[in-house]
Amino acid sequence: MAFHFHIMFMILIFVALVQPSERVNAEPTQDKQALLAFLSQTPHANRVQWNTSGSACTWFGVQCDSNRSFVTSLHLPGAGLVGPIPPNTISRLTRLRVLSLRSNALVGPIPADFANLTSLRNLYLQNNHLSGEFPATLTRLTRLTRLELSSNNFSGAIPFSLNNLTRLTGLFLENNSFSGNLPSITLKLVNFTVSNNRLNGSIPNSLSRFPGESFSGNNDLCGKPLQPCTPFFPAPAPSPSIAVPPVEQQQQKAKGLSISAIVGIVVGSALFILLLLLLLFLCCRRRRRPAKPPPQAVAAAAAARGGAAEGGTSSSKDEDITGSVEAAERNKLVFLEGGVYGFALEDLLKASAEVLGKGSMGTSYKAILEDGTTVVVKRLKDVAVAKREFEAQMEVVGNVKHENVVPLRAFYYSKDEKLLVYDYMAAGSLSALLHGTLLLSHFYNFTSLYILIGYTCSRHFFL
């Protein structure tokens, strides 16, 4: 027993003597070479002086793990670093958890090989001159908990792929040139700010819990917690009462008589052409409509519905039923077959809108819904047509399938409003391609669709 105890005691002494020497001699060789490559390719101030003969774990701004086998943190804030971040240098620190290069003079985009820093938790790059679009490689660093890119020159859209960073709690993007709509970020963020950029549209509900300071400096942003977004369609104006206009208004109208006459001629000509096309369309429908059933059949059908009066007539009751149906469907969008949208009229009314163009038939809007869907809405004016005729015309328009014609996706009919919903085509309009002028409208004018319908109906009628 004494012999065995003596052997165990000698082994413990040997281990105690050997372990300190190994810990002292440990050196992250590959990480040291990566750090030296970064410093040699980046101009810097004299305060960053690394002794190449010493251990990298003792250098200024460098921290290693407890065994000194790899670098875990690199802190060089305000170190006078100048120029672009050289590729294939910092990205070789694959076990780096904290990287701070803030308050320097770094320029250019973030290298794409930053995607190799899969262990990174905190990234501080604020107060530099970095530029380019939002670094897509950063959305692959799924262990990030804090990302600071503020006070740089980044531009372009903020990507929806930020939702890949499921552990992110702090996102700081203020004082840049980001533009476009804010994506619906569903992360459990504690700190968030995008102030002083060029963002527009409505603030998503997922971000409305943050204070107004987080969104200030974006003049085209609206919604909670900022000012409410302007309604897409203003409330219908009340019917004006008949009154004699003041003398000053009569004098102004008299002065502008010549301009009014010109406008009246143009509008009258457009309405005449529209009326002619509408008559052609009605002729086509009347030609295709089956023969009316005899009065006895009409009376029998009316009696079966329980709405027949003496003599087999029930016109007044039918009008009441039609009116009730119209009242029930007044707030519904009608989606055509093959449609790709599923929003309601209330969503359309809450959308932020931009006027694309105005024509004789109405005004075209670019509408951006709360979920980011973008459509074009044509708000018709001076179209006095019955509901059934309007729906029949919309079915004909919806059946027009051509690569050069934007398909009609949905429509809305009421006594006061008639709306058409189209896809938003960012490439421009057919009129711009034909005439060589850049127009704001991104879909065909409703009048041109009537011309196409009138031509089809007249051709069928005369054949």
List key phrases describing it:
463 residues; alpha/beta; Leucine-rich repeat, LRR (right-handed beta-alpha superhelix); Phosphorylase Kinase, domain 1; seven-stranded mixed β-sheet; disordered C terminus
Q: Please, could you describe this protein's structure?
A:
There is one protein chain. The chain has helices spanning 2-25, 29-41, 247-255, 257-288, 295-304, 315-328, 345-350, 387-398, 430-435, 446-462; strands at residues 62-64, 71-75, 82-84, 98-100, 105-108, 122-124, 129-133, 146-148, 153-156, 170-172, 177-181, 191-193, 198-202, 220-222, 334-335, 352-359, 362-368, 374-380, 408-413, 418-423. 31% of the residues lie in helices and 19% in strands. It starts with a helix and ends with a helix. The chain is of the alpha/beta class and 463 residues long. Strand 17 (362-368) and strand 18 (374-380) form a beta hairpin. It has ten helices and 20 strands.
What helical percentage do the residues reach? 25-40%
CATH topology of the largest domain: Leucine-rich repeat, LRR (right-handed beta-alpha superhelix)
What is the element string, with H for helices and E for strands?
A: HHEEEEEEEEEEEEEEHHHHEHEEEHEEHH
Class from secondary-structure proportions = alpha/beta
Whole-angstrom Rg: 36 Å
- Uncertain residue segments: 15-25, 241-245, 291-329, 437-463
Strand order of the largest sheet: 1-2-4-6-8-10-12
Please identify, by name, the CATH architecture of the largest domain.
Answer: Alpha-Beta Horseshoe
Summarize the main sheet.
7 strands, mixed
- Total number of beta strands: 20
CATH superfamily of the largest domain: Ribonuclease Inhibitor
Number of helices: 10
Count of discrete domains: 2
Molecular shape: elongated
Mean pLDDT across the residues is: 76
Query: How far from one another are the termini?
Result: 119 Å
The level 1 CATH classification of the largest domain is Alpha Beta
Beta-strand residue percentage: 15-25%
